[in-house]
Amino acid sequence: xxxxxxxxxxxxxxxxxxxxxxxxxxxxxxxxxxxxxxxxxxxxxxxxxxxxxxxxxxxxxxxxxxxxxxxxxxxxx
Amino acid sequence: xxxxxxxxxxxxxxxxxxxxxxxxxxxxxxxxxxxxxxxxxxxxxxxxxxxxxxxxxxxxxxxxxxxxxxxxxxxxxxxxxxxxxxxxxxxxxxxxxxxxxxxxxxxxxxxxxxxxxxxxxxxxxxxxxxxxxxxxxxxxxxxxxxxxxxxxxxxxxxxxxxxxxxxxxxxxxxxxxxxxxxxxxxxxxxxxxxxxxxxxxxxxxxxxxxxxxxxxxxxxxxxxxxxxxxxxxxxxxxxxxxxxxxxxxxxxxxxxxxxxxxxxxxxxxxxxxxxxxxxxxxxxxxxxxxxxxxxxxxxxxxxxxxxxxxxxxxxxxxxxxxxxxxxxxxxxxxxxxxxxxxxxxxxxxxxxxxxxxxxxxxxxxxxxxxxxxxxxxxxxxxxxxxxxxxxxxxxxxxxxxxxxxxxxxxxxxxxxxxxxxxxxxxxxxxxxxxxxxxxxxxxxxxxxxxxxxxxxxxxxxxxxxxxxxxxxxxxxxxxxxxxxxxxxxxxxxxxxxxxxxxxxxxxxxxxxxxxxxxxxxxxxxxxxxxxxxxxxxxxxxxxxxxxxxxxxxxxxxxxxxxxxxxxxxxxxxxxxxxxxxxxxxxxxxxxxxxxxxxxxxxxxxxxxxxxxxxxx
Lengths: 77, 616
Ligand SMILES: Nc1nc2c(ncn2[C@@H]2O[C@H](COP(=O)(O)OP(=O)(O)OP(=O)(O)O)[C@@H](O)[C@H]2O)c(=O)[nH]1
Ligand SMILES: [Mg+2]
What we know:
Chain A is built from 1 helix and 5 strands. By secondary structure, chain A is mainly β.
């Protein structure tokens, strides 16, 4: 599981490169504006490996990047 | 409904955009509002009167897109696609656009505009944009969409008159400019981005929300504050309500005394005093606790904390095969399983939703509170433990937690067997923190209180009367040598209730229930709180001694182990007809309520049996 949303430091920025998983879930993330190519900031992580909150543009969304979702990112700093 | 003479207009918008708030001010209705995406789960119909016309409006659940991911969204979409037989397609749409969340609103707008219906835009939350030193260019929005735009501050009523006027004027309604044809979601998102910046520019984030989130969602601070909130919750239900409960209790027993002393000791006075007043009084006593409980839940919901709680708890729910959204119906079920089960519509996955609905009745609803309180206050000493918490509150919290944890455990098993399959991961948008409004607090809390009083006034009165008859007939020829109390006891044993209780008692005997407790359990089959009424009628026999409250009578006559066993039984048993019928409605078959009843009864029986064994 190369789920780097789990390891990237809080407050850092990254670009989403690809997103795969449950089709309804992925479609909804896309509709909310979270698409490959989006630059986002990792705002926080819930404790014990729970969901994450990310910010991009004027949006903030929280979701669980669980093992059924494959997220690839390119981290800046 | 003929669409020509009564145009019916739908309110459409993203979740938490202020649709219901606006609907309420325009129609004078009091539908539930809350600071959480997914409050409205059912369409509501209302009317706006303007000059001499009356226009029908329907408020719909919010959705982010016309491709639904959950049943509440699906409802809205089937109305817009004219697929719902009960609600015809609206003749026009008031698009409720949240100015502080313009990207998401415009995304949905671009899809709704393709429907080709006449529209007006209600641009809500413009106060929120100003508070973040932003600017709203509603003229640009009019130009881009070709529609009339009315800026609104819903809860203050600003812009509402203008909107009322607009929906009444034919020339305010337009078919929107057709947006470009989008091949993919990406194109739509890009289109939204190109226009959103010209309409709304906000210089800064919401400071209050950022500051509060840095505490309430902090990895350690977040968990600590979650636990503190829950602790205060239980402490308050028990401690703060006591003075009010004592007051109500003494009021009803004074009334009972008054009837008995003014009407003598005939059958009629007994019926009124013991059947009616004591029966209803023993349930109404719990009104203060129910109010406190609901105030608490409404405040959590209104300030915006609920969505955060779902975020914090998602990991825990995940361990049991559920996701954070399931927390909302489950927490709601702590007040009452009925709205709780309905709000499971916000859960996208069918399997998660079924599981959540089937465990919702295990959450400790308000109707269990009377039973718990009665037994706890009779059998658990009011000690202080840990310097601050009363032992009674700790036990109560324990029972609440037990219901919740068992529910999660049952969910785990169901997700491994009946509802096997991957979960759709948790996804939510946090609303900004807001000051809970007194108005919505009053509306929601009084609604629950009125429901409770109504049931006390109808169901409980009826059941009290039936139970009184069952325990007063057939009459026993009174033995004049016996004291009044002995006479009463003999009458009870001789009565139909006594006979029934004794016939069925062997079933409950392994749990340590005698025939009176058996009558209590049977009597509360349709509604749990009736247990208290039955106890009042069966044990509250000594009204001549004003000190002998029901609690102390119970304490003297019921063994401690049996009392604990009763608590254990009520933690699990599904004694609620209304819950069963809502389960039927939401799942579409009687199979599921029957299943829930059976598994919960089995749990209750086994657990009460074990508790009784261990305690005695
Ligand atoms: N600041 C501000 N708050 C508002 C305004 N309109 C509504 N609210 C608040 O926003 C929250 C959501 O309002 P609702 O009316 O329940 O929203 P809704 O669109 O019906 O939400 P769902 O039914 O969940 O789709 C509540 O806390 C309201 O008090 C507004 O114009 N300004
Ligand atoms: Mg609503």
